[in-house]
TrEMBL record:
Gene3D superfamilies: HAD superfamily/HAD-like, Putative phosphatase, domain 2. NCBIfam families: HAD-SF-IA-v2, HAD_type_II. This is Haloacid dehalogenase. It comes from the Eukaryota. Belongs to the HAD-like hydrolase superfamily. S-2-haloalkanoic acid dehalogenase family.
């Protein structure tokens, strides 16, 4: 990996723990507004996230829809709150509350290794996002979670969403690097496979409860090329990745 000059990171799930972060805000807001205490907020946030995944992939494949994730999140949220399953929440939250909770995605917390790991990696390589999150969301999140990016790339800037090839190639282009000198860092197999198809190097980071469906098709095991797998490096944390890359210098 000596030839790699830039690391581009998926953000949701790879850099930040979206599930715990949003669920905690939902629970606090539910309590404040008298929503039933047995409401399953983890289920709620998982469904909300699935709406994001479904719509970004559909648009990446040429479907119509907004390229701003704040808008997509709000549309999904409104649909959920109008549904029979979550109507008791919808009745408790007025327009102002809904606008506020939609911005919970701007306030996601990093994994325990995130900040220290990114700081260590920043000393070795260019570090940048490559996320479907819109620009303002990623800027707010960086400030909130103290993420030390050299550059923020949002697919909003490129008029598409991952896993469109345009997203990966555009990031490499703006870094003035060929894909072979950029590595995609992600906790999601589909993201890494899409990056590899464009000639990028790939680094898989194991994160709790991420990519469960994809992992099930692989027996729950992801291996590096050195161990007979498909990705260049497989690690459990950014700190481990920094140690590996530091030794290769």
């Amino acid at each position: 990996m000596d030839e790699v000059e830039a690391l581009v990171f998926d953000v949701f799930g790879t850099v930040v723990d979206w599930r715990s972060s949003v669920a905690a805000e939902l629970q606090a807001l539910g309590k404040e507004h008298g929503v039933s205490s047995d409401t399953d907020w983890v289920k709620f946030v998982n469904q909300w996230r699935m709406g994001y995944i479904t719509n970004t992939r559909r648009i990446a494949e040429g479907g119509s829809g907004p390229l701003n994730v704040d808008i997509l999140h709000k549309e999904t949220l409104e649909g959920m709150l109008d549904s029979p399953e979550w109507s008791h929440v919808g009745r408790a939250w007025d327009a102002q509350v809904r606008e506020s909770i939609n911005l919970a995605w701007h306030r996601l917390n990093g994994w325990p290794d995130t900040v220290e790991g990114l700081q260590a990696l920043k000393r070795l390589k260019i570090i940048s996002t490559l996320s479907n999150g819109n620009v303002r969301l990623l800027v707010d999140m960086a400030k909130h979670a103290k993420l030390p990016w050299d550059m923020i790339f949002s697919t909003e800037l490129f008029g598409t969403f991952k896993p469109s090839p345009k997203a990966y190639l555009s990031a490499c282009h703006h870094l003035s690097l060929p894909p072979a000198k950029c590595a995609m860092v992600a906790a999601h197999i589909y993201d890494l496979r899409a990056a590899a198809a464009q000639g990028m190097r790939t680094i898989y980071v194991r994160r709790p409860n991420e990519d469960e469906e994809a992992l099930s098709t692989m027996g729950g095991i992801v291996k590096s090329k050195a161990d007979g797998g498909e990705f260049d490096i497989v690690v459990n944390s950014f700190l481990e990745l920094a140690e590996i890359l530091g030794k290769s210098k």
